[in-house]
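Before relying on records like the one below, remember that each one covers exactly one chain. Contacts with other chains, cofactors or solvent are not represented anywhere in the record.
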Amino acid sequence: MNDKALTIVKWSFEIVLIIILSFMYYLNQPVLTPKVLFIPKGSINQIITQLRERNYNVSKLDSILLRLIGSPQSGWIDMGTNYSSKGDFLYKLTTAKAALQNVTLIPGETTYIFLNELADKLELDRQILQKEYALQSNIIEGAFVPNTYKMPLGITERELIRILLYNSNKQMKDLSIKLFGTYNEKRWFHFVAIASIIQKESANTEEMPLVSSVIYNRIKKGMKLQMDGTLNYGKYSHIKITPKRIREDDSIYNTYKNKGIPKVPVCNVSFEAIRAAVFPAKTDYLYFMKSKSGGHDFSCNYSTHLRNIKHVTK
């Protein structure tokens, strides 16, 4: 082999070595991520673009590498750590599906109780959840849409609250636009406040427009609402309301002491309750009493209401 050939081989070897070393260096670059990462559906290029927009350390070269490694999975990915090498990061995108936990917010539940359940089921810090909720939302109560949420173990308190508020806010805006043609936060949460009382007081969905009519009829006549459900706020969500509690509770939620609708919703509500708040039934009802069948007996005058009470308490 002549000198020219040896030189070509030498330079070729060095070029290949530089490429290999550069490639190894690139794959060992650190990538900072949450321990669980959400990957939206889309093509590889779309996924890489969205990751770049979220300030993750990825480039167009990663699109090529992913085509060699495999297709990224959509949904929650378990990164296992906050720091990964670029190689590990790309590999996990294709293989490491995160374990999901179902967390259900039932209609009528308070945020206080819901945060307790989130902390318990997702192994999160309850105080940090409360802090994040206060930082990310100016709505004291009623900001979440009741649903069953599939959340990954390992999600941070901040990210969890962000996702729940974002999804809930989007659904509320969509419904408001459908009902009113626009979204006004102050007006919307006035109806959520009414809906929260309807949610607490109704035995079923069918009763909601009737309960709503009682609320509007009593307000129109200048009567106090005097509804026990308004006192099932916050940590008192499942506490039986007693005469003692009614006497001693001086909160804005006590509709035995205060006239009108509490300025803050009592709980998180279903869209059925919101529709009932916006579209009450047309009735003259002023009272309702839980019957032996589990529903409510509605009445227009106090004497009939007293008879309904006697019928139940016999």
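The chain has a mean pLDDT of 90.
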